[in-house]
Write a structure and sequence with these properties.
With 635 residues, this protein is mainly alpha-helical. The chain is 66% helix and 6% strand. Helix 5 packs antiparallel against helix 6. Pfam families: Acyltransferase, MFS_1.
C-alpha cells in the first residue's frame, strides 16, 4: 500500500494553518533583519559609525539574546497553556513589534530598529517551544520525519524569501524604507490571521506552576534533559548546527562585498543557494529515512558539513586570483559575478552545506520529539533553545575574536569545518547509536536495496521479542536499519571477537550468549540480561536457529524463545529475511563474484514482518512455521 506524500499534510487543518503561521513568522523575521543588515552594510555611514563587520555579527547576537533570558519561561508557558491560543498571543506581539520597527524606519531612528530586533527575538523565543511541541501532538510517529522536513523546508524558504525581499526592498530609491515598513506590518497581520485557524492543542501540564526565575528554571530545564542522555546529546548536536550556521551565515554580507567584490544581490544569491540547500535536504530526509526517525542521517550530514565547509575555503582561495582584478573596479551584481571563474564551485559548496545541514538537523528534531517526556516537551525544546542561543552567541564572539586577530573570512570557514569534525567525533563517540545507525543506513542504501514488508508491525514502543531466520553476519544490521527504534540483539559470543563486527555489536549493546555445554554461566547471564532489557521496555531480537544456515534452508528453532517468554510475558514477532543467501558474509559455497555479476552492483533484499504472537501461544515449532511462511521460496 502506498504511503501518503509528506506534502499531503499541507491540505490538512491539523498541519496547514500551523505551517503557514510559522512560515510567515520566519519570513517576517528575515524580511526585517536582512533589510537592516543590508542597510547598515551598504549604507552604514548614514546610520552609524560602527564597522559593517561588527554590525553583521552584533545584530544576530541581539536577536538571540532573548533566547538566553526567556526560553525557560517560554517552555513553561507552552506546557501550561493551550498552544493555539498561545500562538495567537505571540502573533499579536509580532504586530506590535513591527509597528515599532516601522516607526524606526520612517524616523530614521536606529535605536527603535534595534529594539525591534530584540522584540522579534522575544517573539521567536516564545514561539519556539510551541512550534516543536505542537508537531508530535498532531502528527503520527511515522509522519514526524515528513512533518519536520516540510516545516524545516518552509522555515528556510520563508527565510530565503524574507532575505531576498528585505534586501531588494530596502535599497529601492526613494521609497525603499517605506516599502519595508509597510511589508513587515502586512506580513505580521497575515500570520495573525493564519494563527486563528490552528486547531486546539491541549496543554500537557496545565497544573504546572510557572517559575519566573529564568536563571534557576534554565538550569532545571537543562538538568532535566540531561537525565535522558540521547535526548540531551541530540540537543547539543542541534545547538552545534546553529553554531555552525551562525558562524558561516553572519559572514555572508561582508564576504559578498569585500571578498567576492559583489553588490547586495550577491549577498542575496548566497543566502538563496544556502536556503535552497537546507530546504531540499530537509525534504529528502523523508525519502532517505523510509518514513521513520532515521538518526543514521545525522553522521552523514555532519560529514558533508565538514567536507564542503572545508572546500568553501579552498574554492574561495581559488577565486581570489581572478577577483584581484575586480577589486579596483565597481562591485558586480550576481549575474556578472556568476560568469567569473570559480564562482560556481563556491555556490555548489554553499548549496551542499545547506543540504547536508538539512540531513543533520531534521532527524535530530524528530529524535528529541519522540524520545523526551511528552509532559516536558515544551520545556525540553526551551532548554534546547537556551543552548542554541548560547552556542550562537559563542559563534558571534568567536567570529569577532578571530577576525580581530587577522583571520580572513575563508579561513573562518575552514576553522568552522575543522571544529565540526572534532565535535562530530566527540558526540558520536558518546552516543554510538548514531554511528551504528549510519553504518546500517549506508549498508541498505549502497550495497543493498531493501524492501520492507509490514515493517509497521515492529512496535514503536513497549517490549517485544523479535525472531528471525539467520542467513549472514549482516542480518542484525539489516534488521536494525528497518526498525524505528534500537534493538538489543542476542548474538553468539564468538562474534564479539571479530575485529569489526565485534565492535559494531558491542556498540549496539548486543547480548552475548554461549551454548550451555560451552559456558553455562554466560548462557544464564544472557537470559538474565534479556529479561532486564524486556523489563525496561526494549526490543530484543534472537535468531532461534542458534547458528548461520549452511544450506540456505531454515534450521530447527531451539527452545530459548520459550524460556524467554516464560520469564517475561511479552509478544513475539516473527520476521524473515529474503535474498541474503549467497552474500559474501553468508556460508554459501556459491561463487560470490558470479552472484554479484548476476544481481548487479546492488542486490535486492526483503524483510517481512509477521503478526505478533501472544506469549501464551509461543512454541519454537510454531514460530519456525511462521518464519518459513514469511520467507517463502526466496532465500
Amino acid at each position: 500500500m502506498s504511503q501518503p506524500n509528506q506534502f499531503s499534510l499541507l491540505s490538512q487543518r491539523r498541519f496547514a494553518p500551523f505551517f503557514w503561521t510559522q512560515f510567515l513568522g520566519a519570513f517576517n523575521d528575515n524580511l526585517f533583519k536582512t533589510a537592516l543588515v543590508v542597510m547598515l552594510t551598504f549604507d552604514a555611514m548614514s546610520w552609524t559609525t560602527l564597522s559593517p563587520s561588527l554590525i553583521t555579527n552584533l545584530i544576530p547576537g541581539l536577536f538571540i539574546l532573548p533566547y538566553v533570558l526567556f526560553s525557560a519561561t517560554a517552555g513553561q508557558l507552552a506546557d501550561k497553556f493551550e498552544k493555539s491560543g498561545l500562538t495567537r498571543f505571540v502573533k499579536w506581539l509580532e504586530v506590535a513589534i513591527m509597528c515599532i520597527a516601522g516607526l524606526g524606519w520612517m524616523t530614521h531612528t536606529l535605536w527603535l530598529l534595534v529594539t525591534a530586533v530584540v522584540g522579534m527575538g522575544i517573539h521567536s523565543t516564545l514561539f519556539g517551544p510551541v512550534k516543536y511541541a505542537y508537531l508530535p501532538q498532531q502528527l503520527k510517529p511515522e509522519e514526524l520525519i515528513g512533518g519536520n522536513g516540510v516545516t524545516e523546508m518552509g522555515t528556510f524558504v520563508g527565510i530565503l524569501l524574507g532575505e531576498i525581499l528585505g534586501a531588494v526592498l530596502v535599497v529601492q530609491k526613494p521609497n525603499g524604507i517605506a516599502f519595508e515598513a509597510v511589508a513587515t506590518i502586512a506580513v505580521a497581520l497575515l500570520g495573525l490571521v493564519a494563527s486563528y485557524r490552528i486547531p486546539l492543542a491541549p496543554a500537557p501540564a496545565p497544573e504546572l506552576k510557572v517559575s519566573w526565575n529564568f536563571i534557576g528554571e534554565s538550569f532545571r530545564n537543562i538538568n532535566f534533559s540531561r537525565k535522558n542522555r540521547v535526548v540531551f546529546l541530540s540537543m547539543l548536536g542541534n545547538s552545534w548546527f546553529w553554531f555552525y550556521g551562525a558562524l558561516v551565515l553572519a559572514q555572508f554580507p561582508v564576504y559578498a562585498k569585500d571578498y567576492l567584490h559583489g553588490d547586495h544581490s550577491v549577498f542575496v544569491l548566497l543566502l538563496t543557494v544556502f536556503s535552497l540547500g537546507v530546504g531540499s535536504g530537509s525534504l529528502l530526509c523523508e525519502r532517505l529515512s523510509g518514513r521513520k526517525v532515521e538518526i543514521g542521517l545525522v553522521p552523514f550530514g555532519s560529514i558533508g558539513l565538514s567536507v564542503f565547509g572545508a572546500d568553501l575555503y579552498f574554492s574561495s582561495q581559488g577565486f581570489s586570483a581572478g577577483a584581484a582584478a575586480l577589486a579596483a573596479g565597481p562591485h558586480l551584481d550576481a549575474f556578472a559575478l556568476m560568469v567569473q571563474h570559480g564562482m560556481w564551485r563556491i555556490l555548489a559548496d554553499v548549496l551542499l552545506i545547506g543540504m547536508f545541514g538539512g540531513f543533520f538537523i531534521v532527524p535530530l528534531f524528530a529524535l528529541i520529539q519522540t524520545r523526551c517526556d511528552p509532559a516536558h516537551m515544551s520545556r525540553t525544546i526551551a532548554g534546547m533553545n537556551i543552548l542554541n542561543a548560547l552556542f550562537m552567541v559563542a559563534a558571534a564572539g568567536l567570529a569577532i575574536v578571530l577576525l580581530g586577530q587577522g583571520f580572513t573570512i575563508p579561513q573562518l570557514f575552514l576553522v568552522t569545518a575543522a571544529l565540526n569534525a572534532v565535535v562530530a567525533v566527540y558526540i558520536f563517540s558518546l552516543v554510538p547509536e548514531f554511528l551504528m545507525r549510519f553504518l546500517a543506513w549506508m549498508l541498505i542504501h549502497t550495497v543493498h536495496r531493501v524492501r520492507l514488508i509490514d515493517a509497521e508491525r515492529i512496535p514503536a514502543e513497549g517490549a517485544a521479542v523479535l525472531v528471525c531466520n539467520h542467513v549472514s553476519y549482516v542480518d542484525a544490521i539489516v534488521i536494525g536499519a528497518a526498525s524505528p527504534r534500537p534493538i538489543r540483539f542476542v548474538m553468539d559470543h564468538r562474534i564479539f571477537k571479530l575485529p569489526l563486527l565485534g565492535w559494531i555489536f558491542r556498540t549496539a549493546r548486543a547480548i552475548p550468549i554461549a551454548p550451555a555445554k560451552e559456558d553455562p554461566w554466560l548462557m544464564e547471564k544472557a537470559y538474565v540480561d534479556i529479561a532486564q532489557a524486556l523489563h525496561e521496555g526494549d526490543l530484543v531480537c534472537i535468531f532461534p536457529e542458534g547458528r548461520l544456515t549452511s544450506t540456505g534452508e531454515i534450521n530447527a528453532f531451539k527452545g530459548g524463545v520459550s524460556k524467554i517468554v516464560e520469564r517475561t510475558k511479552v509478544p513475539v514477532i516473527p520476521m524473515a529475511l529474503r535474498g541474503l543467501w549467497g552474500h559474501l558474509l553468508s556460508r554459501s559455497g556459491a561463487n560470490v563474484f558470479e552472484r554479484a555479476f548476476r544481481t548487479g552492483l546492488r542486490s535486492r533484499l526483503a524483510l517481512a514482518v509477521g503478526v505478533p504472537v501472544p506469549p501464551q501461544d509461543v512454541t519454537p515449532e510454531g514460530l519456525q512455521e511462521r518464519v518459513l511462511e514469511l520467507r517463502g521460496d526466496w532465500k
